[in-house]
Amino acid sequence: MKYLSLFIFISFFKLEVLFAQIYPSNFIFNGCDYTYYENSFTSSRTKLCGDDYKLIFEDNFDSIKIDDTKWQTFFPWGRALNSSTSGTGFTREYMKDDNAKIKDGYLHLTTKIDSDYRDVYNIPSYDSSWMPPHNNIYFKYSSGMIFSKVNFNFGKFVVKAKIPSIDGTWPAFWLYGDCAQEIDIFEFINSSNNSDSELDSRSLILTYHKQNNCGDASFGKCENPFKFMNSENLSDDFHLYSVEWDATKILWKLDDKIVREVYRYWEISKPPPFGPTIGFANPIKNCESSRILKSNAVFNSFPDENKKMSVILSTGVAFDRGVYPTELIVDYVKIYEPINNFVIDSVKTESINLFPNPTNGIFSIYSVNSEYTINAVYVYNSHLEQIELYKGLNVGTLEIDLFDKPKGIYFIKVFSNNEIFTKRVIVK
User: Fold this and answer.
1) Is 294 in the same domain as 385?
2) Of 120, 152, 156, 333, which sits 20 to 30 A from 256 (CA to CA)?
Protein backbone atom coordinates (compact mmCIF):
# COMPACT_ATOMS: atom_id res chain seq x y z
CA MET A 1 0.00 0.00 0.00
CA LYS A 2 2.90 2.32 0.77
CA TYR A 3 4.28 1.77 -2.74
CA LEU A 4 0.83 2.23 -4.30
CA SER A 5 0.47 5.58 -2.52
CA LEU A 6 3.91 6.59 -3.72
CA PHE A 7 2.97 5.60 -7.29
CA ILE A 8 -0.25 7.65 -7.10
CA PHE A 9 1.70 10.65 -5.75
CA ILE A 10 4.34 10.40 -8.48
CA SER A 11 1.66 9.96 -11.15
CA PHE A 12 -0.20 13.02 -9.86
CA PHE A 13 3.08 15.01 -9.78
CA LYS A 14 3.81 14.02 -13.37
CA LEU A 15 0.27 15.02 -14.37
CA GLU A 16 0.72 18.40 -12.69
CA VAL A 17 4.04 18.93 -14.50
CA LEU A 18 2.47 17.77 -17.76
CA PHE A 19 -0.30 20.35 -17.49
CA ALA A 20 1.95 23.09 -16.15
CA GLN A 21 3.05 25.87 -18.44
CA ILE A 22 6.06 28.09 -18.04
CA TYR A 23 5.52 31.82 -18.38
CA PRO A 24 7.85 34.77 -18.10
CA SER A 25 7.41 36.42 -14.73
CA ASN A 26 6.59 39.78 -16.30
CA PHE A 27 6.53 41.61 -19.61
CA ILE A 28 8.59 44.75 -18.99
CA PHE A 29 12.15 45.40 -20.13
CA ASN A 30 13.95 48.60 -19.19
CA GLY A 31 10.65 50.45 -18.97
CA CYS A 32 9.28 49.25 -22.34
CA ASP A 33 6.04 47.29 -22.39
CA TYR A 34 5.69 44.33 -24.73
CA THR A 35 2.55 42.24 -25.30
CA TYR A 36 2.07 38.52 -25.88
CA TYR A 37 -0.31 37.38 -28.60
CA GLU A 38 -0.89 33.65 -28.74
CA ASN A 39 2.54 32.03 -29.25
CA SER A 40 4.40 35.08 -30.45
CA PHE A 41 6.14 38.01 -28.85
CA THR A 42 5.31 41.40 -30.34
CA SER A 43 5.75 45.02 -29.44
CA SER A 44 4.49 48.44 -30.43
CA ARG A 45 8.12 49.60 -30.19
CA THR A 46 10.90 48.62 -32.55
CA LYS A 47 13.70 48.59 -29.97
CA LEU A 48 14.35 48.79 -26.26
CA CYS A 49 13.68 52.31 -25.05
CA GLY A 50 16.38 54.59 -23.75
CA ASP A 51 20.03 54.86 -24.57
CA ASP A 52 20.91 51.40 -23.27
CA TYR A 53 24.01 50.64 -25.34
CA LYS A 54 27.28 52.16 -26.46
CA LEU A 55 29.05 51.21 -29.69
CA ILE A 56 32.29 49.33 -29.01
CA PHE A 57 33.06 47.65 -32.37
CA GLU A 58 32.14 48.29 -35.98
CA ASP A 59 33.26 47.52 -39.48
CA ASN A 60 31.62 49.26 -42.43
CA PHE A 61 33.88 47.45 -44.94
CA ASP A 62 34.81 50.70 -46.67
CA SER A 63 38.53 49.87 -46.94
CA ILE A 64 40.21 48.07 -49.83
CA LYS A 65 40.81 44.85 -47.91
CA ILE A 66 39.62 43.04 -44.79
CA ASP A 67 40.97 44.58 -41.58
CA ASP A 68 43.24 41.84 -40.21
CA THR A 69 43.31 43.51 -36.79
CA LYS A 70 39.59 42.69 -36.50
CA TRP A 71 39.06 39.52 -38.54
CA GLN A 72 40.63 36.30 -39.74
CA THR A 73 39.27 34.31 -42.67
CA PHE A 74 39.42 30.83 -41.15
CA PHE A 75 38.39 29.04 -37.97
CA PRO A 76 40.96 28.76 -35.15
CA TRP A 77 40.75 24.97 -35.58
CA GLY A 78 41.06 24.86 -39.40
CA ARG A 79 39.36 25.69 -42.70
CA ALA A 80 36.25 23.50 -42.37
CA LEU A 81 33.72 22.45 -39.76
CA ASN A 82 33.34 18.80 -38.82
CA SER A 83 30.26 17.28 -40.45
CA SER A 84 28.73 13.81 -40.44
CA THR A 85 26.82 14.42 -43.71
CA SER A 86 29.54 15.51 -46.14
CA GLY A 87 31.19 12.12 -46.60
CA THR A 88 34.61 13.62 -45.83
CA GLY A 89 34.14 14.15 -42.10
CA PHE A 90 34.08 17.87 -42.88
CA THR A 91 31.57 20.26 -44.38
CA ARG A 92 31.26 20.37 -48.16
CA GLU A 93 33.06 23.69 -48.43
CA TYR A 94 36.67 24.70 -47.76
CA MET A 95 37.19 28.21 -46.39
CA LYS A 96 39.58 30.10 -48.69
CA ASP A 97 40.99 33.54 -47.94
CA ASP A 98 40.26 34.67 -51.51
CA ASN A 99 36.54 34.00 -51.07
CA ALA A 100 36.23 36.83 -48.54
CA LYS A 101 36.70 40.15 -50.33
CA ILE A 102 35.69 43.80 -49.95
CA LYS A 103 34.25 45.41 -53.08
CA ASP A 104 32.54 48.82 -53.40
CA GLY A 105 32.03 49.21 -49.67
CA TYR A 106 30.59 45.73 -49.08
CA LEU A 107 32.01 42.48 -47.77
CA HIS A 108 31.40 39.64 -50.24
CA LEU A 109 31.55 36.07 -48.95
CA THR A 110 31.48 33.84 -52.03
CA THR A 111 30.59 30.17 -52.35
CA LYS A 112 31.50 28.44 -55.61
CA ILE A 113 32.22 25.08 -57.21
CA ASP A 114 35.96 24.76 -56.77
CA SER A 115 36.88 21.07 -56.66
CA ASP A 116 40.29 20.13 -55.30
CA TYR A 117 42.18 18.26 -52.59
CA ARG A 118 43.04 20.62 -49.74
CA ASP A 119 44.67 20.67 -46.30
CA VAL A 120 42.08 21.52 -43.62
CA TYR A 121 44.81 22.55 -41.20
CA ASN A 122 46.65 24.92 -43.52
CA ILE A 123 46.30 27.95 -41.26
CA PRO A 124 48.92 30.40 -39.94
CA SER A 125 48.11 29.49 -36.33
CA TYR A 126 48.53 25.71 -36.80
CA ASP A 127 49.62 24.07 -33.55
CA SER A 128 50.62 20.39 -33.67
CA SER A 129 50.34 20.09 -29.88
CA TRP A 130 46.52 19.99 -30.06
CA MET A 131 45.51 20.02 -33.73
CA PRO A 132 45.37 16.92 -35.99
CA PRO A 133 48.15 16.38 -38.54
CA HIS A 134 48.00 18.04 -41.94
CA ASN A 135 45.82 16.17 -44.44
CA ASN A 136 44.64 16.15 -48.06
CA ILE A 137 40.84 16.09 -48.31
CA TYR A 138 38.62 16.44 -51.39
CA PHE A 139 36.21 19.40 -51.35
CA LYS A 140 33.79 20.15 -54.18
CA TYR A 141 33.18 23.72 -53.02
CA SER A 142 35.13 26.64 -51.58
CA SER A 143 33.57 29.42 -49.55
CA GLY A 144 34.32 32.49 -47.44
CA MET A 145 34.05 33.64 -43.85
CA ILE A 146 35.29 36.13 -41.26
CA PHE A 147 35.98 35.28 -37.61
CA SER A 148 36.50 38.09 -35.09
CA LYS A 149 39.84 38.34 -33.31
CA VAL A 150 38.09 40.01 -30.36
CA ASN A 151 35.67 38.14 -28.07
CA PHE A 152 32.53 39.71 -26.64
CA ASN A 153 30.20 39.34 -23.68
CA PHE A 154 26.75 40.88 -23.12
CA GLY A 155 25.57 43.25 -25.77
CA LYS A 156 23.78 43.91 -29.01
CA PHE A 157 25.15 42.36 -32.21
CA VAL A 158 23.92 43.76 -35.51
CA VAL A 159 24.58 43.00 -39.17
CA LYS A 160 23.09 44.55 -42.28
CA ALA A 161 23.31 41.90 -44.97
CA LYS A 162 21.78 40.49 -48.15
CA ILE A 163 21.60 36.71 -48.14
CA PRO A 164 21.87 34.61 -51.30
CA SER A 165 18.90 32.63 -52.55
CA ILE A 166 18.70 29.58 -50.29
CA ASP A 167 19.23 26.87 -52.87
CA GLY A 168 21.82 24.58 -51.33
CA THR A 169 23.73 27.45 -49.70
CA TRP A 170 24.00 27.98 -45.93
CA PRO A 171 24.70 31.58 -44.81
CA ALA A 172 24.98 32.41 -41.10
CA PHE A 173 25.79 35.18 -38.61
CA TRP A 174 26.68 33.66 -35.24
CA LEU A 175 28.44 33.95 -31.90
CA TYR A 176 30.63 31.09 -30.70
CA GLY A 177 32.71 30.36 -27.61
CA ASP A 178 33.87 27.81 -25.04
CA CYS A 179 31.68 24.79 -24.21
CA ALA A 180 30.33 24.99 -27.79
CA GLN A 181 28.34 27.99 -26.58
CA GLU A 182 26.63 29.43 -29.65
CA ILE A 183 23.95 31.96 -30.51
CA ASP A 184 22.86 31.87 -34.15
CA ILE A 185 21.67 35.38 -34.94
CA PHE A 186 20.58 34.03 -38.30
CA GLU A 187 20.94 30.87 -40.30
CA PHE A 188 19.28 30.01 -43.60
CA ILE A 189 19.33 26.43 -44.81
CA ASN A 190 17.15 24.22 -47.01
CA SER A 191 14.87 22.08 -44.88
CA SER A 192 15.52 19.10 -47.18
CA ASN A 193 17.34 18.32 -50.40
CA ASN A 194 14.18 18.88 -52.46
CA SER A 195 12.62 21.71 -50.44
CA ASP A 196 11.29 25.00 -51.81
CA SER A 197 14.06 27.61 -52.26
CA GLU A 198 11.56 30.49 -52.10
CA LEU A 199 10.17 29.20 -48.82
CA ASP A 200 13.61 28.54 -47.34
CA SER A 201 14.70 32.08 -48.26
CA ARG A 202 11.91 33.33 -45.99
CA SER A 203 12.71 30.94 -43.12
CA LEU A 204 14.92 32.66 -40.53
CA ILE A 205 16.45 30.10 -38.14
CA LEU A 206 17.28 31.48 -34.68
CA THR A 207 19.03 29.01 -32.42
CA TYR A 208 20.90 28.61 -29.16
CA HIS A 209 23.31 25.72 -28.43
CA LYS A 210 25.56 24.81 -25.55
CA GLN A 211 27.11 21.70 -24.01
CA ASN A 212 25.01 20.53 -21.09
CA ASN A 213 28.20 19.82 -19.18
CA CYS A 214 31.13 22.02 -20.13
CA GLY A 215 34.17 19.95 -21.00
CA ASP A 216 32.32 16.62 -21.23
CA ALA A 217 30.67 16.16 -24.63
CA SER A 218 29.14 12.84 -23.54
CA PHE A 219 26.39 14.78 -21.76
CA GLY A 220 25.23 16.12 -25.12
CA LYS A 221 24.23 19.60 -26.18
CA CYS A 222 21.30 21.80 -25.38
CA GLU A 223 19.73 22.31 -28.81
CA ASN A 224 16.97 24.87 -29.11
CA PRO A 225 16.19 25.83 -32.70
CA PHE A 226 13.37 28.17 -33.67
CA LYS A 227 12.15 29.10 -37.16
CA PHE A 228 10.58 32.46 -37.95
CA MET A 229 8.70 32.56 -41.25
CA ASN A 230 8.92 36.00 -42.85
CA SER A 231 6.22 37.20 -45.23
CA GLU A 232 8.77 38.18 -47.91
CA ASN A 233 11.81 36.56 -49.51
CA LEU A 234 14.77 37.84 -47.47
CA SER A 235 17.24 37.26 -50.31
CA ASP A 236 15.62 40.06 -52.34
CA ASP A 237 17.19 42.92 -50.36
CA PHE A 238 19.38 43.95 -47.41
CA HIS A 239 17.94 43.45 -43.92
CA LEU A 240 19.00 44.12 -40.33
CA TYR A 241 19.58 41.01 -38.23
CA SER A 242 20.44 41.37 -34.55
CA VAL A 243 20.51 39.74 -31.14
CA GLU A 244 20.50 41.38 -27.71
CA TRP A 245 21.82 39.25 -24.91
CA ASP A 246 22.25 39.86 -21.17
CA ALA A 247 22.13 37.90 -17.91
CA THR A 248 18.41 37.11 -18.09
CA LYS A 249 17.24 37.14 -21.71
CA ILE A 250 18.09 36.81 -25.39
CA LEU A 251 16.11 38.83 -27.94
CA TRP A 252 16.37 38.19 -31.69
CA LYS A 253 15.26 40.93 -34.07
CA LEU A 254 14.64 41.23 -37.79
CA ASP A 255 14.65 44.83 -39.04
CA ASP A 256 14.41 46.01 -35.40
CA LYS A 257 11.28 43.92 -34.67
CA ILE A 258 11.45 41.16 -32.08
CA VAL A 259 10.95 37.73 -33.64
CA ARG A 260 12.09 35.51 -30.76
CA GLU A 261 12.87 35.71 -27.04
CA VAL A 262 14.19 33.27 -24.44
CA TYR A 263 14.80 33.69 -20.72
CA ARG A 264 17.01 32.30 -17.98
CA TYR A 265 14.28 32.40 -15.29
CA TRP A 266 10.65 31.34 -15.68
CA GLU A 267 7.57 31.25 -13.49
CA ILE A 268 5.52 28.05 -13.55
CA SER A 269 1.73 28.16 -13.48
CA LYS A 270 -1.20 26.10 -14.69
CA PRO A 271 -2.73 26.94 -18.07
CA PRO A 272 -6.06 28.82 -18.30
CA PRO A 273 -8.65 28.51 -16.87
CA PHE A 274 -6.57 27.31 -13.89
CA GLY A 275 -3.79 29.87 -14.27
CA PRO A 276 -3.10 33.32 -15.72
CA THR A 277 -5.01 34.24 -18.85
CA ILE A 278 -1.92 35.36 -20.73
CA GLY A 279 -0.46 34.10 -23.98
CA PHE A 280 1.86 31.13 -23.75
CA ALA A 281 5.52 32.00 -24.34
CA ASN A 282 8.01 29.36 -25.41
CA PRO A 283 10.92 28.89 -23.00
CA ILE A 284 14.16 27.13 -23.80
CA LYS A 285 13.38 23.48 -23.21
CA ASN A 286 14.55 19.91 -23.80
CA CYS A 287 17.84 20.61 -22.02
CA GLU A 288 19.17 18.34 -19.31
CA SER A 289 20.24 21.20 -17.11
CA SER A 290 16.84 22.87 -16.76
CA ARG A 291 16.14 22.85 -13.03
CA ILE A 292 12.46 22.89 -12.09
CA LEU A 293 11.66 24.38 -8.70
CA LYS A 294 8.26 24.64 -7.01
CA SER A 295 7.38 28.02 -8.46
CA ASN A 296 9.99 28.70 -11.11
CA ALA A 297 12.37 27.12 -13.60
CA VAL A 298 16.04 28.01 -13.86
CA PHE A 299 17.71 27.32 -17.18
CA ASN A 300 21.31 26.58 -16.22
CA SER A 301 22.50 26.11 -19.80
CA PHE A 302 21.78 29.74 -20.60
CA PRO A 303 24.87 31.52 -22.01
CA ASP A 304 27.60 31.86 -19.42
CA GLU A 305 28.32 35.55 -18.94
CA ASN A 306 31.88 34.64 -17.91
CA LYS A 307 32.65 33.02 -21.28
CA LYS A 308 33.07 35.48 -24.12
CA MET A 309 32.17 34.61 -27.70
CA SER A 310 33.62 35.39 -31.12
CA VAL A 311 31.55 36.88 -33.95
CA ILE A 312 31.39 34.89 -37.19
CA LEU A 313 29.92 35.54 -40.64
CA SER A 314 30.10 32.54 -42.92
CA THR A 315 28.48 30.84 -45.87
CA GLY A 316 28.69 27.28 -47.09
CA VAL A 317 26.84 24.40 -48.73
CA ALA A 318 24.20 22.32 -46.97
CA PHE A 319 22.97 20.31 -49.98
CA ASP A 320 24.61 19.50 -53.30
CA ARG A 321 22.21 21.60 -55.36
CA GLY A 322 21.77 25.14 -56.69
CA VAL A 323 23.50 27.49 -59.09
CA TYR A 324 26.96 28.85 -58.18
CA PRO A 325 28.68 31.13 -57.42
CA THR A 326 26.50 32.68 -54.69
CA GLU A 327 27.31 35.54 -52.31
CA LEU A 328 26.47 36.69 -48.81
CA ILE A 329 26.89 40.49 -49.05
CA VAL A 330 27.47 42.46 -45.84
CA ASP A 331 27.08 46.24 -45.47
CA TYR A 332 28.26 46.50 -41.86
CA VAL A 333 28.71 44.78 -38.49
CA LYS A 334 28.13 46.76 -35.28
CA ILE A 335 28.51 45.57 -31.70
CA TYR A 336 27.22 47.45 -28.67
CA GLU A 337 27.94 47.02 -24.96
CA PRO A 338 25.28 47.64 -22.29
CA ILE A 339 25.82 50.91 -20.44
CA ASN A 340 24.65 49.35 -17.18
CA ASN A 341 26.02 45.82 -17.27
CA PHE A 342 24.25 43.76 -14.60
CA VAL A 343 26.70 41.06 -13.44
CA ILE A 344 25.20 38.15 -11.52
CA ASP A 345 26.71 36.64 -8.36
CA SER A 346 29.47 39.21 -7.99
CA VAL A 347 29.29 39.52 -4.19
CA LYS A 348 32.69 39.09 -2.60
CA THR A 349 32.12 36.71 0.30
CA GLU A 350 35.02 38.21 2.22
CA SER A 351 33.32 41.61 2.29
CA ILE A 352 29.51 41.39 1.88
CA ASN A 353 27.34 38.35 2.48
CA LEU A 354 23.65 37.40 2.43
CA PHE A 355 21.83 34.82 4.57
CA PRO A 356 19.74 32.69 4.34
CA ASN A 357 19.55 31.84 0.65
CA PRO A 358 17.18 30.30 -0.40
CA THR A 359 14.90 32.25 1.90
CA ASN A 360 11.25 32.52 2.88
CA GLY A 361 11.50 36.20 1.95
CA ILE A 362 13.21 37.59 5.05
CA PHE A 363 17.00 37.66 4.98
CA SER A 364 19.97 39.76 6.05
CA ILE A 365 22.76 41.44 4.13
CA TYR A 366 25.76 41.99 6.31
CA SER A 367 29.35 43.14 6.18
CA VAL A 368 31.91 40.43 6.87
CA ASN A 369 34.84 42.81 6.62
CA SER A 370 34.77 45.65 9.12
CA GLU A 371 36.21 47.97 6.49
CA TYR A 372 33.03 47.66 4.40
CA THR A 373 29.69 49.29 5.20
CA ILE A 374 26.40 48.96 3.33
CA ASN A 375 25.50 52.32 1.77
CA ALA A 376 22.54 51.39 -0.47
CA VAL A 377 20.64 48.30 -1.59
CA TYR A 378 18.50 47.84 -4.71
CA VAL A 379 16.16 44.85 -5.13
CA TYR A 380 15.15 43.64 -8.60
CA ASN A 381 12.80 40.91 -9.79
CA SER A 382 13.89 38.22 -12.27
CA HIS A 383 13.65 40.57 -15.25
CA LEU A 384 15.60 43.33 -13.53
CA GLU A 385 12.69 45.59 -12.63
CA GLN A 386 13.52 47.53 -9.48
CA ILE A 387 10.97 46.75 -6.75
CA GLU A 388 12.67 47.94 -3.55
CA LEU A 389 15.26 50.58 -2.67
CA TYR A 390 17.15 51.20 0.57
CA LYS A 391 19.50 54.18 0.48
CA GLY A 392 21.18 56.68 2.76
CA LEU A 393 22.55 53.79 4.80
CA ASN A 394 25.83 53.42 6.61
CA VAL A 395 25.32 50.12 8.38
CA GLY A 396 26.94 46.76 8.83
CA THR A 397 23.72 44.71 8.64
CA LEU A 398 20.43 45.29 6.81
CA GLU A 399 17.32 43.11 6.95
CA ILE A 400 15.34 42.71 3.71
CA ASP A 401 11.67 41.72 3.81
CA LEU A 402 10.25 40.16 0.63
CA PHE A 403 7.88 37.88 2.52
CA ASP A 404 4.80 39.28 0.74
CA LYS A 405 6.41 39.15 -2.72
CA PRO A 406 5.83 36.32 -5.23
CA LYS A 407 8.10 33.33 -4.91
CA GLY A 408 10.89 33.21 -7.45
CA ILE A 409 14.24 34.73 -8.40
CA TYR A 410 15.42 38.17 -7.19
CA PHE A 411 18.62 40.14 -7.54
CA ILE A 412 20.14 42.25 -4.78
CA LYS A 413 22.52 45.05 -5.78
CA VAL A 414 24.61 46.32 -2.85
CA PHE A 415 26.57 49.59 -2.90
CA SER A 416 29.47 49.46 -0.48
CA ASN A 417 32.62 51.59 -0.25
CA ASN A 418 32.31 52.81 -3.86
CA GLU A 419 31.92 49.23 -5.10
CA ILE A 420 28.83 47.45 -6.40
CA PHE A 421 28.11 43.82 -5.51
CA THR A 422 25.25 41.77 -6.94
CA LYS A 423 23.74 38.57 -5.58
CA ARG A 424 21.00 36.22 -6.78
CA VAL A 425 18.34 35.22 -4.19
CA ILE A 426 15.68 32.52 -4.37
CA VAL A 427 12.49 33.20 -2.41
CA LYS A 428 10.75 29.86 -1.87
Assistant:
1) no
2) 152
Residue 74 to residue 92: CA distance in whole angstroms: 15
Please report the pLDDT score of residue 266 as a whole number: 57
Q: How do residues 368-405 score in pLDDT, each as one tens digit? A: 888 888 988 989 876 667 888 898 888 999 999 999 88
Nearest to 123 by CA among 102, 89, 95, 149: 95
CATH number at residue 413: 2.60.40.1930
Coil, helix or strand at residue 14: helix
Q: For residue 317, give the DSSP letter.
A: B
User: For residue 369, is it within any domain?
Assistant: yes
- Position 334 scores a pLDDT of 97
DSSP-derived 3-state class of residue 234: helix
Q: Which domain holds residue 148?
A: 22-338
Residues 277 and 418 in one domain: no
pLDDT by residue (tens digit) across 265-291? Answer: 555 455 545 544 333 333 444 444 444
Choose the final residue of a domain: 338, 372, 388. 338
Global pTM exceeds 0.85? no
**Residues 175 and 210 occupy one common structural domain:** yes
Of 344, 363, 342, 341, which Cα lies nearest the Cα of 354? 363
- C-alpha pair distances (Å), 229 with each of 37, 120, 166: 16, 35, 14
Sign of the Cα torsion 127, 133, 134, 138 reads negative
How far is it, in rounded angstroms, from Cα 380 to Cα 29?
A: 12
Asked if residue 258 has pLDDT above 50, the reply is yes
Distance CA 144, CA 138 (A): 17
Distance (Å, whole) CA 332 – CA 40:
29
* C-alpha–C-alpha distance, residues 110 and 296, integer Å: 47
Q: Any idea what the Cα angle at residue 269 is, between residues 265 and 271, rounded to 5°?
A: 125
Q: Which residues contact 360 (CB under 8 A, 6 or more apart)?
A: 403, 427, 428
- Do 185 and 292 reside in the same domain of the chain? yes
| 157 three-state secondary structure | strand
Q: For 35-193, where are the E strands, in sequence order?
A: 35-37, 40-42, 53-59, 71-72, 93-95, 100-103, 106-118, 137-143, 145-148, 155-162, 172-177, 181-187
Whether residue 214 sits in one domain with residue 288? yes
DSSP structural state of residue 154: S
- pLDDT value for 305: 75
Measured CA angle at 355 (ends 352, 360), to 5 deg:
145
